[in-house]
């Protein structure tokens, strides 16, 4: 019987936004598989809240990224796995007329440029060692935008998808794999706050707000949101030796939400 090697023993992994939600679940999962995990976020999660090496950094700031990479190269001599998880919805809903240049720029900085900036600084060592895996955490919004809720966010994630494919093609013959993971609705504190804010602004109950949001995306066939650990499990497989022939592809983990194949 064929067995799949999903051990990450001896691997060095960086998870951005790795102190909560999907990022924390990924960091914990990779560590359990044997990886030495580094996490970064804007603010320290507090004593006892992370078992991983923490480096504070705002990835929308080039100077912070330079300091982060310098510390990684000094202490760990590079990394083998990069999980670009930092991102989020910061622009208001309401459609095109509510979005200013600043809204667009902020969304692109957080959801696209932060990843390209970090890739650009960490890729050289991966290429030098002729091995590495980069995962971009995107969103099903990149293929299923909601004009009244997440227009700028969805556009920035669509751009991330395209960039990830281009980078994968460039590095495939050089030993570095690049993949995209696109979660749908996932039960994280930011998602719960988004639902609460939407319900409050609409003057409806939390349950009604959740149902209205589900209706806008056509529902979730599985009938529930994903757990962060389920996204982490997929990421673990993709960065492992078991997925050695996978690159340049995008994986939706959305309970069947996307209405297309």
TrEMBL record:
Residues annotated as transmembrane: none
The organism's taxonomic lineage, starting at the top: Bacteria, Pseudomonadati, Bacteroidota, Chitinophagia, Chitinophagales
Entry-linked InterPro entries: NAD(P)-bd_dom_sf (IPR036291), Sc_DH/Rdtase_CS (IPR020904), SDR (IPR050259), SDR_fam (IPR002347)
Family recorded in the similarity comment: Belongs to the short-chain dehydrogenases/reductases (SDR) family.
Listed name of the protein: NAD(P)-dependent dehydrogenase, short-chain alcohol dehydrogenase family
UniProt-listed PROSITE patterns: ADH_SHORT (PS00061)
Protein species of origin: Filimonas lacunae
Gene Ontology terms: biological process: monocarboxylic acid metabolic process
